[in-house]
Specification:
With 187 residues, the chain is of the alpha+beta class. The chain has helices at residues 7-13, 27-32, 98-102, 118-128, 156-170, 179-186, and strands spanning 16-22, 43-52, 58-71, 78-92, 107-110.
């Protein structure tokens, strides 16, 4: 895949790009992910199809996917995420008005320099798929490894804190913005 693509020409000519790329080609994904030294890097699979739709708009459809290891924000152990980023983008030169955006099934991709960096586009779409606070589903977290000198059993305070965290997670948005703080104050 080229480093830069003229999306207007690619869409008019119906060009497609697809394949696999090493994760090292995506530095921002590497910053988020965990990679042990000597471990083979994951591969990013992608498909980018430039074309015109039935309304004669220039569009980019495709997908990108990768299996990325991150840190679970609940138990601080490894968490594998299967990131799958579908792309349905309409190529535009200026940001559309909100009315124009609502009438389209495609998200606008503003192209100001008549070129796009496909690697940056793929990386942006995959980064958007990472949860703000990645964590295992409730009940699947690993118990923290005790430090030397600690017992294997969690302390009463740790149990209370874990139960409180789980109850806060399971609770729907409280009607009052400070309801959660009030509950924390009682414990």
């Amino acid at each position: 895949m080229p480093d830069h693509i003229d999306p207007w020409r690619a869409a008019k000519n119906g060009l497609s790009f697809g394949g696999e790329l090493p994760l090292e080609r995506f530095p921002r994904l590497l910053e988020v992910g965990i990679v042990d030294e000597g471990e083979p890097l994951a591969r990013v699979e992608y498909q980018l199809d430039f074309r015109r739709n039935a309304q004669r708009q220039l569009i980019l459809e495709g997908w990108a996917r990768v299996r990325l290891r991150v840190l679970c924000q609940r138990c601080l152990s490894d968490l594998w995420l299967n990131l799958d980023a579908p792309m349905t983008l309409r190529l535009v030169r200026v940001e559309p008005t909100s009315a124009d955006a609502l009438q389209s099934d495609y998200e606008p991709l503003v192209v100001t320099d008549d070129v796009i960096d496909p690697f940056e586009l793929i990386e942006d779409e995959l980064l958007l798929m990472i949860p703000s606070f990645p964590r295992h589903p409730v009940g699947e977290c690993q118990s923290p490894v005790p430090m030397s000198g600690e017992t294997d059993a969690p302390s009463t305070e740790q149990v209370k804190a874990r139960r409180l965290a789980e109850s806060v997670e399971d609770t729907d948005q409280a009607s009052h913005p400070f309801a959660i703080l009030e509950r924390l104050k009682k414990h």
